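[agent] plan:
  1. take the single chain provided in the ticket
  2. run structure prediction with default settings
  3. attach structure tokens to the ticket
  4. add a short note for the reviewer (M.T.)
[agent] executing step 1
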Amino acid sequence: MAAKAQIKDAGTNPRGIPYAPFVDKVEDYVSSRAQVDGTMKSFQEMISKYQFMEVNTQRRAAGLKEKIPDVRKTLDMVQFLKSRKGGSDPLETTFELNETLYAKAKIPPTDEVYLWLGANVMLSYPVAEAETLLESKLSIAQHSLDNCEEDLDFLREQITTLEVATARVYNWEITMKRKEKSERGDVEGDGDQKRILPSR
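[agent] step 2 finished; step 3 output follows
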């Protein structure tokens, strides 16, 4: 009962992931060997949940690591276009049509750019507004990545805590088994001794 209360009130990290219960005294979680299996099963279920969250967080972090360089590169280009003066010569460059096909283009100074927003949607923005939008997206993506990395460290810590808790409960059960076996042996030994005493 105490274990359930501690798990419920353990608190969470900033993203709402709960802390794993720390087993300092096994007796606070199990009062008899009959409760060991249920406690071990509960710990294993929590480990599985943490591992599931860990996999999802790793995927999210991998997606952000791919996205951030693209956003940064786009932001750099927008800032470059913004820095060009109105009377500058057209900029000759190449742009990608697909993975193996490029085309040459001359880009005059411009106050407008087109940004892909995803889902085959492209919108035009004034250069200054595009810069603000991309800076915001980059900041949000970087913050999300930092949160993912923090959550991954947190999840690994909780998994380790539960693995230690599982080992402690298991070792406690082994100790109780040996103790019970020893006590049974003492009782049987006393009984045998009584049987071999000569009667008077």
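[agent] step 4 note for reviewer: The first strand starts at residue 91 and ends at 96.
[agent] ticket updated
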